[in-house]
């Protein structure tokens, strides 16, 4: 290894470790935001337990909210990465279904207010 | 043995080795909801090809691995993702290697970082949303780790294999 390799590793870790810790320490959110093709199609309270189906030309995803957590419980996309991701609950966490261009993300009510103001 | 025959034999070996590593990666549960998202273990064989032969040979190994992996245990999506990450990684690795300022460890880490960035950029474009970037810091931490291991192994094997090929 050269000196430059060591510098590179130290710089990357100095940036990444604090950012990752900050992300992990985020508080749980209270709103679920559903986006398809980059557009918000639905906002649901994280307290509103139930299953919600979203169907487009790309296919369908069924989103389940339960005990203040949200997941994609069923989808007809290849690979089922969105289903395998499991539950999320923290602010700004998201589940992506790339083949269906669907994004399930969690925001706090304040953030949603900002979106409306914009 | 003729040098050319040796080279082809080694490249074939690298492709099959890269394919095995790609398959092993599919067995690791995917924490990141991007189809085809990979830690980059297979890059070890590609990096070795880059050091022993050159960018052309490394690109051939990588392309063959990606096509075969997509056919055997992937999809069209995983193919596109692998391709976007891999082409960016090979380009950067070859550029960094040329500067001669880094050992294979540094070159490998640069490759891993850009492999990731390529995949995330494509995901942002397809989703028309930046939500997926939430996962960037975590995945970069893991990829720097695999990049380090890959580079370390290439460092170990590079000179010994070069002697074997040039004998
Ligand atoms: Zn999906």
What does this structure look like?
The complex is a heterodimer of chains A (118) and B (167). Chain A contains three helices and seven strands. Chain A is of the alpha+beta class and 118 residues long. Chain A has one domain: mini-chromosome maintenance (MCM) complex, domain 2 (Sandwich), CATH 2.60.320.10. The longest helix of chain A has 22 residues. The mean pLDDT of chain A is 87. Chain B has 167 residues and is an all-alpha fold. Classes of the chains: A alpha+beta (118), B mainly alpha (167). Chains A and B meet through helix 1, helix 2 and strand 6 of A and helix 4, helix 5 and helix 6 of B. Bound molecules: zinc ion.
List keywords for this structure.
heterodimer, A: 118 residues, alpha+beta, mini-chromosome maintenance (MCM) complex, domain 2, 3 helices, 7 strands, 30% helix, B: 167 residues, mainly alpha, Arp2/3 complex 21 kDa subunit ARPC3, binds zinc ion
> Any idea what the shape of chain A is?
globular
Query: What is the strand arrangement across the widest sheet of chain A?
Result: 2-1-7-6
Helix content of chain B: over 70%
Give the helix/strand class of chain A: alpha+beta
* Cα distance spanning the termini of chain A: 50 Å
User: Looking at CATH, which topology of chain B would you report?
Assistant: Arp2/3 complex 21 kDa subunit ARPC3
Q: Unreliable stretches of chain B, pLDDT < 50, 5 or more residues? A: none
What is the straight-line distance between the termini of chain B? 9 Å
State the secondary-structure class of chain B: mainly alpha
Number of helical stretches of at least 4 residues of chain B: 6
Number of domains of chain B: 1
Beta-strand segment tally of chain A: 7
Shape of chain B: globular
């Amino acid at each position: 290894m050269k000196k430059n390799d060591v510098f590179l590793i130290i710089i990357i870790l100095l940036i990444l470790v604090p950012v990752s810790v900050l992300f992990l320490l985020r508080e749980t959110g209270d709103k679920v935001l559903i986006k398809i093709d980059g557009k918000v199609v639905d906002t649901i309270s994280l307290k509103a337990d139930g299953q919600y189906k979203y169907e487009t030309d790309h296919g369908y995803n069924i989103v389940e909210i339960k005990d203040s957590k949200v997941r994609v419980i069923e989808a007809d996309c290849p690979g089922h990465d969105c289903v395998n991701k499991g539950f999320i609950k923290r602010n700004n966490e998201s589940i992506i279904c790339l083949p269906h261009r669907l994004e399930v993300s969690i925001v706090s009510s304040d953030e949603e207010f900002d979106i409306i103001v914009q | 043995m003729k040098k050319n025959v040796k080279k082809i034999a080694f490249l074939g070996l690298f492709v099959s080795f890269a394919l095995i590593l790609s398959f092993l990666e599919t067995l690791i549960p995917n924490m990141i909801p991007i189809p085809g998202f990979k830690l980059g273990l297979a890059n070890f064989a590609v990096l070795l090809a880059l050091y022993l032969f050159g960018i052309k040979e490394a690109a051939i190994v990588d392309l063959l691995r990606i096509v075969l992996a997509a056919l055997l245990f992937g999809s069209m999506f995983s193919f596109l993702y692998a391709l976007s990450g891999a082409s960016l990684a090979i380009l950067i690795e070859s550029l960094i290697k040329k500067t001669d300022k880094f050992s294979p460890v540094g070159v490998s880490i640069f490759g891993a970082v850009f492999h990731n960035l390529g995949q995330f950029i494509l995901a942002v474009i397809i989703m028309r949303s930046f939500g997926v970037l939430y996962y960037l810091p975590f995945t970069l931490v893991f990829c720097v780790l695999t990049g380090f291991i890959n580079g370390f192994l290439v460092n170990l094997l590079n000179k010994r294999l070069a002697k074997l090929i040039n004998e």
